Amino acid sequence: MRGSLLCAALLASVMAHAADAPTVSVQAHVEPEQPTIGQRFRYVLEVSAPAGTDVAVTQPGEHLGDFDVVDFGADPPAERDGRTVTPHWWRLVGWSPGEHTIESPPVHVHQPGGALADVPGATTRVVVASVLGDADEKTDIRDIKGPEPVPPDLRIWYALGARRLPELGEFKEFYSALSGIVRRYLEDRFVVRAPEMTTEEFLEATARSSVLEPGQRQLLGDFLAESDLVKFARHVPTLADSDRVLGAAERFVDETAVREQLPAEEHRAAG
User: Fold this and answer.
1) CA distance 161 to 244
2) Omega before 32 within 30 of 0, i.e. cis
3) Considering 11, 15, 25, 26, which has the largest number of Cβ atoms within 10 A of its Cβ?
């Protein structure tokens, strides 16, 4: 009899705690719905909870499922039907075509008394499209072209990918794209693994070598430091700032680019 009463009391306690625990749900989707190989896309996880609920979202490492994580953040919470909905997002990139699934990062809710409870996750299907298109189009593959020289400035790349981002208020995207272009240029121009280094590591490496003059290293350091402020410290620049930083990047590339020697210059050099 006593055992039955004890079991009943324990069951009632568990049910009471379960009733007290806030109900939290998650939903996930990707933008765009069908990215291509190498295209960055957003994975958005919306966490819905009663107002005032203490919710924790686990931050993944360098990968989320089959995809590389290149950026992450959270949008301001919104109130919907008496609940608080907080969108957490990750910018991902994939290198393998076909169908993939993303299991949402673990989400936990703090229960009364300090205990953590797991929130049921969400599975998202992602189809990565090949840049070659359908199988019938693959017969049109042509031989690759030879290497092209490093462009003298960034205007071509900028026109292709980042022209209107500041006008749309996408400053973080703009600075990320521009700093990525500069780092890739540095890798091609000076055979430096710039994309794999932090700003501090790269500036320290260039300081120990002669690949850059002091003025060029200072110009690059100022550009990368400002880019890091926007990308990681949530600094909000202005349109004038974006124009200025673009000019600094173009000036840096122009000062360090390989110059083709004209015939007359070659003749004078030989004389």
Assistant:
1) 18
2) yes
3) 26
Architecture of domain 22-128: Sandwich (2.60)
pLDDT tens digits for range 112-171: 776 788 999 999 999 998 765 554 444 444 544 444 454 544 544 554 457 577 877 888
For residue 52, the one-letter residue type is G
Task: Round to whole Å and give the CA distance between 166 and 240.
Answer: 10
What pTM was estimated for this model as a whole? 0.46
> CA 246, CA 84: separation in Å to the nearest integer?
39
Residue type, 269: A
Query: What contacts 195, CB < 8 A, 6 or more positions away?
Result: 180, 183, 184, 187
Q: Which of 243, 190, 248, 182 is nearest to 215 (CA)?
A: 248
